[in-house]
Every structure is written in structure tokens, then in C-alpha cells.
Amino acid sequence: xxxxxxxxxxxxxxxxxxxxxxxxxxxFILFVLxxxxxxxxxxxxxxxxxxxxxxxINFFEDVVVQYFSEESNGLLFHIGVSMxxxxxxAGFGKFYNLxxxxxxxxxxxxxxxxxxxxxxATSIFIGIFMVIMGLIGIGIEGLINIGIxxxxxxxxxxxxxxxxxxxxxxxxxxxxxxxxxxAANQELVEARQREKELAVAEERVRxxxxxxxxxxxxxxxxxxxxxxxxxxxxxxPDQAFQAVQVCRQEAKAALExxxxxxxxxxxxxxxxxxxxxxxxxxxxxxxxxSGKSVNLDIQADIPDLDxxxxxxxxxxxxxxxxxxxxxxxxxxxxxxxxxxxxxLLTLSIQDDGKSAADDQVSSSFGLAGLMExxxxxxxxxxxxNLAEGGFCLTLEVPITxxxx
Length: 404
What we know:
- The chain is of the alpha+beta class and 404 residues long.
- Among the domains are: 2-138, no CATH class; 273-404, Heat Shock Protein 90 (2-Layer Sandwich), CATH 3.30.565.10.
- The protein has 12 helices and 5 strands.
- The chain has helices at 13-34, 42-59, 61-66, 71-93, 99-112, 115-135, 140-232, 237-266, 275-290, 307-327, 358-362, 365-376; strands spanning 293-298, 333-341, 344-351, 380-385, 391-398.
- It has a 5-stranded mixed beta sheet with strand order 1-2-3-5-4.
- A hairpin with a 5-residue loop joins strand 4 and strand 5 (391-398).
- The relative contact order is 0.05.
């Protein structure tokens, strides 16, 4: 049947086709056995040809529909030819037992055509059929019986056809939504992949700047001191020895820089710990590696934080300590305060050392990344040199949540 083009009943299409062929075969048998016209007469062969035509147009309906630029026109042509052949078969063969074929064509009409078009075509079809039945002399009583049968049958056929059509439309919409959902899911996966690639690229840039600012600085100083040693090794051994000591210090500092970068790469922000635990461990590691005094003050009214905010706080402390290690000359006391006032979380990292120039600190890739993180959370990151000496890094982030 024509249902394939409209994507109706994909799983039941073969059953519907078989039903159509069974109905046509049954009509063939009824006509031959009914002997409504003499066997071998022109009416007999004309009726057989009409029934065969109905069979062929249903068998090759896909091919027929393809010849039309618009599918709806092809479907209408298919239904119209089937109706004409059925009416000719009824007239030539004086054959009224075509009711099942009429039901079959009506079902096809209401499934494949618009309801108004199907109703109009079916009404005209049945009306002409009843006229033909009257012309072949079936009688008033016969017409009444056929009319009642057609009315009752049509109510069932039309209702079933419309229900099946509605079900098919809902199924098609569900499949379309499923495909759209699958496409959206694929886009989400690709977006996550791009986000991961972007994060990797940003991390590479950060590491490149850290290597340049940290390791590159120490290696440059080491190279200069080695040149001094080379020039003074024989002329001024004492100064050469002092330069060697400086080289050792620079080499040690470079090694510490490498270890620190590796530790940052290997460590996830919280690593399954609470923010307080992670900060205490980070500060303790800094004390041991730098020998500096660090005062960490986490106030008791800090609420529960979401993972993104907690990770940002941790990264801010980590980056602040890294900048102190790089830029704060002779810093001995470092103060870290984490407090909450009126749904505003404030983190301040302050040292008492001789800080580098503002532009040198502000050019840090780590601080630039933290500034972007803070803006994404609706907060801000500021840094400044203190009038009494030292440097202060402040992070403010709006929060919501219940106090612990």
C-alpha cells in the first residue's frame, strides 16, 4: 500500500499489504463462483481485468507515486484509479460483493489523504457504487441491505483508520523528538570535549608562563653567574667561589620551581577533601618548602560552598602563595583570611615583603585565570601594594547557602 511514503506503520506495513492482497483474492474467488455474468463473456474478462488492475496498482504503488512531483498528488491518483476500477468491475460484472474492496480503499483514503478530501472522495465513490447497484437491478431491498452494511462498516473503518493515523503521527513526533534529543546530546558531548581541550590549552599557556617567569629566571641568573665564575676563576678565586654559591642557590631554586609546577599539575583542587582541610595542607606544605610563617584564619561562619566556588578559593590561595614565592622579596609573615559577611565571601592574602612592581604581578597568567574564574562566579579579584609595605590579593565571591 501507500503507507511507506508517509512512514506509517513501519512494522505492520507487510501485514497491511498482505491483507490487501487477501481481500483482492477473496473478491476474485467470489466473482468467479458467483457467476453474475456468463463465464468467458466480455463482461467476465472486463471484470477480471479491473480486479487485476486494482491488484497491480496496489502492488506497484511506490513506483506510481514516484512519478508525481508532489506525494499527495500521487496518493490521490492511486486512490482515484482504485475507485474507478472498482466501479467498472461492479458495472461490468454486475458484482455487488465488492464491499470489502470498498472498505479497503476507504481505509487507504483516510490514512493517506486529508480527512476532508478522503470523506468527499469516499462519499462520491459509495454514491456512484449505489447508483450502479441500482442500475444492474439489485432491487430496493438489496440496496437497503448494502447501504446498511456500508454505513456500519464505514463507521468502523473510518474510526480505526483515523485512530491509526493519529497513532502514527504521534509515533513520528516521538521519533523526531528522540532524534533531536540525540543530536542535542551529541552537541553537548562535543561542547564538553571542546571545553576540555580549551582547559588543556589554558593550562599549557599557564605552565609556559610559569616556566618563563620562574624556571627561566633562575636559569638566566645561573647562566650569568657561571659566566662570572669563568672570568674570575683564576684572577679572583674568592669572588668565583661566591659566584658558585650563588649558582647553587639558583639551581636549588630552579629545582624547587620544577617540583612546585609538577605538584600543581598532579594535584586536583580539593582531591576529595573539605576546603578547610585542603587549605591547611596547602599552607603547611608552603611553610615546609619556603620556611616562611603563614597565618591561616578561616572564620567559623563560612557556609557550605559549591564545588566550583570551593575550587576557586583553593586556586586563589595556591596562586597567592606562588606569587609570594616568586615576587615578594624577604617576606617573613603571610596572613590568609577567609570570611563571610552578608552572603559575600572574602579571601585576602597579605604579605610583609618587598613586592615586585604591579605590572609584573598583574601579568601573571595564574592571576588572569583567577580573575576570569571570579567573574564567572559574579565576583571580582583585586591586588595592590600596601602603603606600609607588602602586597595584598583580595577575592570577593557572592554565595548562598546555610552556615555550617
